[in-house]
Known about the structure:
The structure is a single chain. With 368 residues, the chain is of the alpha+beta class. The chain folds into 3 domains: 2-124, Rossmann fold (3-Layer(aba) Sandwich); 135-151 and 227-359, ATP-grasp fold, B domain (D-amino Acid Aminotransferase, Chain A, domain 1, 2-Layer Sandwich); 156-224, Dna Ligase, domain 1 (2-Layer Sandwich), CATH 3.30.1490.20. It has helices at residues 14-26, 51-59, 82-85, 112-120, 129-136, 138-147, 160-163, 166-179, 203-213, 258-263, 278-294, 330-337, 342-361; strands at residues 2-8, 34-40, 46-48, 76-77, 87-89, 92-94, 98-102, 156-159, 184-188, 198-200, 219-224, 228-237, 242-243, 247-251, 268-271, 299-308, 314-320. The strands form 4 sheets. Strands 12, 13, 14, 15, 16 and 17 form a 6-stranded antiparallel sheet that branches. The longest helix is centred in the last third of the chain and has 20 residues, at 342-361. The chain is globular, with a radius of gyration of 21 Å.
Amino acid sequence: MNIAVVFGGKSGEHEVSLLSASSIARNIPAAANRVYLIGITKSGAWYVQDDAELERIRNNPEAVLAIRESESTRVSVVPGGGCAGAFRCESGTIPVDAVFPVLHGSFGEDGTIQGLFEMADVPYVGGGVMASALAMDKEKAKVLWQAAGLPVVPFIAVKYSDWNNEAERRVLVQKAEKDLSYPLFVKPSCAGSSVGASKASNREELEKKAGEAFAWDDKIIIEPFVPAREIECSVTGNEAPVAYTPGEIIPTHEFYDYDAKYTDPDGASLKIPADISEQTTKKVRQIAVQAYKTLDLSGLSRVDFFIDKRNDTLYLNEINTIPGFTSISMFPKMCEASGLPYGDLVMKLIHLAKARFDAKRNLRTSRQ
């Protein structure tokens, strides 16, 4: 197959994407597949990379993809171009049988690039437009999960336009203090990797931390801070999703923030399988599938849970439709613990993308 690995992007998780994409690209079997690397800069320009870049990361397991820019390699996406002509640069078309978007966060997990691939008429790994957008928006996902009877942490969603109004802000702060109580956890509604997330112990901190979160999104979530064990569960599949062996994140920081995930080598340890009972394991896997199906997801996701240390209450926290994909990331590690090796996982996701694309093509789009 001709497989385009698209990486980088405009989000705050650009560097994480380079790490994930490096692992994915080097684990696509070279003998049977042609891999095209398409890097997206932080300004949003697309460039196809030279084959030497692919060989560089294949020959060095520690190497990380870089994006080299040249007008001759700048990529355009053609609506309706299909697998034979959707991606073009100065030297001609880039044929693709499937696209693997390794784009974490904004412009990657939020339905925007999924819409572009739909318009281009190419198969792509992961959830569709609506499912990706819903999963990215923590408020909307929680509302739907609540309606489905799934256990979520109580929350308040706040728009910047309301927070920026002094009278409205006073009401919102009082509501948070009354309904949720301190300490509170504040995070952007539509950002990943715990970017902009922080803890507030009083009103002054709440107003400060909310302002910091609004730098990343125009809507934030305020929740009670749960002293919790962090449990994660991988899910793959289209119509019949499967949940894998849950794992546990054990952070050395107060909570699993961006630094603990990516910049502090000792920020957390990973335990697979999670040290939970058989009954809790079954419940986690069951809720993970329910959460996935409620949002109409496909391909893959990592579903994150809290277990309250005070009373063992299980909460569904959030879902990541393009989770971290380095060789040590939780998503592939949990799949591997269930008997699905990294390389086989990558190809499974590509085949799921093609199956979803083929099934959708059988639907009618015209009365004629």
